[in-house]
């Protein structure tokens, strides 16, 4: 700043001094000039204190910026490795969680497949039970028909021989019969007709 003040044009300075002498010759102008000089001195003093304060603040901020730059450099040297290690650890944890989640999903899928097989097995059993009940109902109806038409109730459980019961409703009596499988079917029918 001092060098800029020294570079003032000399011609302009002489002209300014002449104007100042002309003003000083007039007393009123002199008082106004004194007041102006005092105001300028006050203004210069105030500006100088502002400049000093701003210089101190700038120097403080420059020191803080330099300290931050040093911290950043140190953190880049040591913190980068720590940050990478932290990020790697976080990545490993996420991968482990994903692996566990996949295992859980696989186990749930297997359970669902097991439930589906059980559901199909239960449905098959229900179908078999319905078929057996239907067959049993048909057999009962056949037995009832045989008993009401011929008074003969065959025994279907013993398949090694032809057996059953002849029922006489009038006499309220039941007579058991048995024939060997080796006998001719015509002979068995004739004997049954005679019994009924």
UniProtKB/TrEMBL annotation:
InterPro entries registered for this protein in UniProt: SPC24-like
GO BP terms in the entry: regulation of chromosome segregation
Transmembrane segments: none
Assigned keywords, A-Z: Coiled coil
Gene3D superfamilies from the UniProt entry: Ncd80 complex, Spc24 subunit
Ranges in coiled-coil conformation: 51-104
Superkingdom to which the source organism belongs: Eukaryota
PANTHER family the record matches: KINETOCHORE PROTEIN SPC24 HOMOLOG-RELATED
Protein name: Kinetochore protein Spc24
């Amino acid at each position: 700043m001092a060098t800029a003040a020294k570079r003032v044009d000399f011609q302009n300075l002489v002209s300014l001094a002449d104007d100042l002498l002309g003003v000083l010759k007039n007393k009123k102008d002199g008082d106004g000039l004194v007041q102006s000089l005092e105001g300028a001195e006050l203004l210069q003093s105030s500006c100088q204190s502002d400049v000093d304060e701003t210089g101190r603040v700038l120097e403080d901020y420059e020191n803080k910026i330099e300290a931050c730059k040093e911290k950043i450099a140190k953190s880049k040297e040591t913190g980068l490795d720590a940050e990478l290690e932290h990020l790697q650890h976080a990545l490993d944890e996420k991968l482990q969680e994903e692996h566990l989640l996949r295992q859980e999903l696989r186990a749930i899928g297997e359970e669902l497949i097991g439930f589906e097989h059980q559901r199909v097995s239960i449905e098959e059993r229900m179908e078999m039970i319905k078929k057996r009940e239907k067959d049993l109902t048909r057999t009962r109806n056949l037995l009832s028909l045989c008993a009401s038409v011929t008074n003969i109730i065959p025994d279907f459980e013993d398949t090694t021989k032809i057996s059953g019961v002849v029922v006489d409703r009038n006499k309220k009596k039941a007579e058991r019969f048995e024939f060997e499988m080796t006998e001719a079917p015509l002979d068995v029918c004739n004997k049954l007709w005679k019994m009924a």
